[in-house]
Amino acid sequence: MSIYDVDIDRLEGGPADLGQYRGKSVLIVNVASKCGLTPQYEGLQRLQQTYAGRGFTVLGVPCNQFAGQEPGSPEEIAEFCSTTYGVDFPLTEKVDVNGEHRHPLYAALVTVPDASGYTGDIRWNFEKFLIGPDGAVVARFDPRMEPDTDEVVGAIESSLS
Fold it and tell me: From which residue to which does the signal peptide run (predicted)?
């Protein structure tokens, strides 16, 4: 199954239609508003601004599974992201990324290894998956890896070539 075939709603409700990203590169990130890694929103927004015109988007996926760090309603999450970090990339509904109720999107993603060979459960907020224009996972990045590191930027640029 391709990620384009997965059903997920937008944060504000209604289908997110991942099929709209066919032919584009997408950085999927499980996000949270009350996490020590939350300032990564700044780097994610910079990536969005830098590469959106070249067929790229960040897709934020709120998750409250890690120490309850995304407790807000959809409206609160959207307001926080917009006013605090100027986020204008799309956000999906809040989902589980691990466990019995893991969203199908993450069921498809967690089988892909990161650079150190890790596969399996999402380790924390802000774990990143780069999807290439063909819908395949190009890379997986540790949650602590800042969005603007050479590894992430290099992978994005390679996927856009």
Answer: none
Distance of alpha carbon 157 from alpha carbon 62, whole angstroms: 25
Residue 35: active-site member:
yes
> Number of helices and strands (H, E) in the chain?
4, 4
Structure tokens at 35: 């996490």
Q: Can you spell out the DSSP letters for 81-135? A: HHHHH---S-BB---B-SSTTB-HHHHHHTTS--TT---SS--STT-EEEEPTTS
Domains of the chain: 3-139 (3.40.30.10)
Catalytic residue chosen out of the listed positions 35, 52, 112, 137:
35
Which tens digits make up the pLDDT trace of 91-113?
999 999 999 999 999 999 999 99
- On whether the pTM is more than 0.70, the answer is yes
